[in-house]
Amino acid sequence: MDELDLLKKDWNKGGDNFPKLTYNDIYKMILKRSSSIVKWIFIISLLEFAFWALISFFLKDSESMKRFNQYDADTIFIPLMVIGYVILAYFFYLFFKNYKTISTTDNAKILMENILKTRRIVKQYVAFNLIYLVVSTIVVLWLEFDRDQLIINQVQEATANGEAFKFYATIIAATILLLILAIGVLLLFYWLIYGLLLKRLNRNYKELKKLEV
Description:
mainly alpha, 7 helices
């Protein structure tokens, strides 16, 4: 329980043992708490990006990456990566901008609007990451079928044996299952981190609505 939770119970109550809280006192506490939450959203998004960047760095010499390098698909991979980095950078900018805006807000109505905006941006950020994962997986799968000689040979062998449909169905089913697992893990992570922060931010929004009544 934070400072606001401890003190708001005694707002405008009599007695000498507890401080009397004014509207501005509670507003400043909500503002401080909201600013801290948005700051952590910004920091965690950067840490998440750094984590995946490190994973990519350590995997760059793996067998899978060496195979991808043989595909000669820079015209596909580079634009895909650039688009991803640009959009992520834009989200980081929005998170930071919201943090600075909320930190200097002196109006409850505007603070409420910025809280709603932050919630919307976080949801868009999560949706983008999941969509980017799906699109990247589809692109990689297409490249493997189109340029990986081992898979091409397997397709040709399956076709010669009349099992082409079975081969494609097995690959697609396995890919979908892995995607579902990956998305499930990411959604759990996002719920545990961003979801809990947004829940606290939503609580602040409700407190502000009470103040405005």
